[in-house]
Amino acid sequence: MLEVSEISKNYKNIPALNKISFNVGKGEMFGIIGPDGAGKTSLIRILTTLLIPNSGYAKLDGLDVVKDFKKIRKKIGYMPSKFSLYQDLSVYENLSFFASVFGTTIDENYDLIKDIYQQIEPFANRLAGKLSGGMKQKLALSCALIHRPDFLFLDEPTTGVDAVSRKEFWQMLATLKKLGISILVSTPYMDEATLCDRVMLIQKGNALTIDSPAAITAHFPHPMWSIKGGSLYKIKKVLEGYEFTHSVNSFGQDLHYVDKRTQINITEIRNFIQSKTGELVEVNTILPNIEDCFIEYSR
Amino acid sequence: MNNILFIIQKEFIQIFRNKTMLPIIFVLPIMQLLILVHAANYELKNIDIVVYDKDNSQYSRELISKFEASPFFNIAARAYSPATVDEYLYANKAELALVFPTGFEKDLVTQQKTQLQIQINAIDGMVAGLANAYVAAIVNNYNKSILPQIMPISANGSIKSIQVDESYWYNPELNYKSYMVPGILVLLVTLIGIILSSMNLVREKELGTIEQINVTPVKKYEFIAGKLFPFLIIGLVELAFGLTIGFLLFHIPIVGSLFLVFGVAVIYLILVMGLGLLLSTVSSTQQQTMFVAFFFIMIFILMSGLFTDVGNMPDWAKNLNRINPIAYFIKIMRMVLLKGSELRHIKQEVTTLAIYAICIFSMAVWRYKKRA
């Protein structure tokens, strides 16, 4: 059980985190979602006892991250965003080194890392620096797990990893969760939010909202439409000048449009677009996703 | 405690796997000893001289032949005008000009005194001073040998003078290499102690591996001890290796106790590794570390008395040398290796080094933070 209360952190005069509070229950997968520079890494480094907050406190199973850092370090696993294992040691040497410094052995906790480690075991004698991105990530996760931590902190584990490896990685996390390990994971990818039990959306050091992904999207305050077809750039420009527009954002092949009014007529919007651009578009009502919510809350 | 062993083990694997580290450790000492010992040589031999003999008499020719016979001088040319003398000096074809004035012999015989002009290229003051001393010695000797011929015989028929017999101690052959080798060994040990150890520590920061170590229960002292111990061993191996080369190749005398030498080396290494550790706490990349280390080592080396005698430095420089660890260790090495000084003779230097080591090392450990 992790309890974070009003954590703030400044770097000189620049605020990085502003009164962040949340709880993570046992066996829960908690996501911290936000763009680069939102404060995700600072927050995780505070929770992993590497950084001291300016104010506020955080407790892991009742242990304070500042005062009881020695005890906490035995209970947590941490995977930094940058690959931080020894590139000039082999896969096996890295794993056994980290097992040793935690006072354990690979054999003792092999069952926990088996599923992950087996995939890189054929390369046990290869230097870590010579592994591919996905394999490095599996090794890093194995090393973070080798001492059987209660709580796992993962800082942007899927950044720079291909789509297939990303998917695999989230499956591994789901397996670990089933074993009762609490997981706190940060990611800049909004689509990964739905894989977490609960998420915190964070922007410029401020928590925008904390809830389950389903609840966050359900609480979106406006109806939303997707607009397909035609020249999206031109239509977006036109809608930005429309008197009833609340927001309009492009999402791949369509625009997500939010109207200021609660009751509106689809044909009215279609006609407006047609009159301005001469293009015929398809307008459908859709449910907002996490990214829509993020954009809405960070307005 | 076990953690220290695990870290030491890891360090040795990494050091021996590093393709640049091994050559540095084993090729560097050989190269430095082979090259520096010969290059940093102050023995003066074969100074080129140009002779302008206006007198061309028996005495002048005799004196010139004395110069010819000396191993220190080599008569490069004979000039027949003042302008040619200058030409030779300008072109660096001669370092020194001997000019015999007209009437050199006549004055000597009739007035019992005469003049000889010496022009020395004094751009390198050290060489000029030595050359002058050698010239003076030859002229003096010649003076003595011709005295009986030109002086009226005294009442009792002999000339009284003080005879000086010289004997050089501790380095009877005035072998410059014996003087240089201990100093260069100190240089090697220092490079390992400061540069290699601090770079090794900063490397963990630069590559980010320190993040992963910091969340482990490894304690600060365990990490530092584990990281530095390998370099203590490498430093001592290096010293032993260098001493062996010095002994076999340069036949340097090892008069004093090797046990004492290595004992002091341990203290010295702890001190310089402390400096390295301190350096690593203030820099975040290996490049920064290199430059800062280079800055200090340059000053320490040039002031240490490795190349020039500390005794001749101005007082402020002598005082500055009180905080120069290299100066202490070079002094101790030369005393113990060449003279056979014992612990009681170097007690003061060793105590200073030890206190210094404790201060620097504690400061470095205190400055080193496992978290921000």
In short:
The complex is a heterodimer of chains A (299) and B (372). With 299 residues, chain A is α/β, with parallel strands linked by helices.
Question: SSE layout and pairings?
Answer:
The complex is a heterodimer of chains A (299) and B (372).
Chain A: E1 2-11, E2 14-24, E3 29-33, H1 40-47, E4 55-60, E5 63-64, H2 69-75, E6 76-79, H3 91-101, H4 110-117, H5 133-145, E7 151-155, H6 163-178, E8 182-187, E9 198-203, E10 206-211, H7 213-218, E11 224-228, H8 232-240, E12 245-251, E13 254-259, H9 266-277, E14 282-286, H10 290-297
Parallel strand pairs in A: 3-8, 3-9, 6-7, 7-8
Antiparallel strand pairs in A: 1-2, 1-4, 4-5, 9-10, 11-13, 11-14, 12-13
Helix pairs in contact in A: 3-5, 4-5
Chain B: H1 2-17, H2 21-39, E1 47-53, H3 58-69, E2 73-79, H4 82-90, E3 96-100, H5 104-111, E4 117-120, H6 125-150, H7 176-207, H8 209-214, H9 220-250, H10 258-282, H11 286-303, H12 315-320, H13 325-339, H14 347-367
Parallel strand pairs in B: 1-2, 1-3
Antiparallel strand pairs in B: 3-4
Largest sheet of chain B: 4 strands, mixed
Number of strands of chain B: 4
Largest sheet of chain A: 6 strands, mixed
State Rg of chain B. 28 Å
Q: What's the end-to-end separation of chain B, in Å?
A: 25 Å
Euclidean distance between termini CA atoms of chain A? 32 Å
Strand percentage of chain A lies at 25-35%
State the assembly state of the protein chains.
heterodimer
Structural class of chain A: alpha/beta
Describe this structure in words.
- The complex is a heterodimer of chains A (299) and B (372).
- Chain A is built from ten helices and 14 strands.
- Chain A is of the alpha/beta class.
- In chain A, strand 7 (151-155), helix 6 and strand 8 form a beta-alpha-beta unit.
- In chain A, helix 3 runs parallel beside helix 5 and helix 4 packs antiparallel against helix 5 (133-145).
- The longest helix of chain A has 16 residues, at 163-178.
- Chain B has 372 residues and is an alpha/beta fold.
- Chain B has a four-stranded mixed sheet, with helices on both faces.
- In chain B, strand 1, helix 3 (58-69) and strand 2 form a beta-alpha-beta unit.
- The longest helix of chain B has 32 residues, at 176-207.
- The chains are: A alpha/beta (299), B alpha/beta (372).
- The A-B interface holds A 45, 48-52, 69-70, 73-74, 76, 78, 80, 82-89, 93, 97-98, 100-103, 143 and B 2-3, 6-7, 10, 13-14, 17-18, 207-218, 371-372.
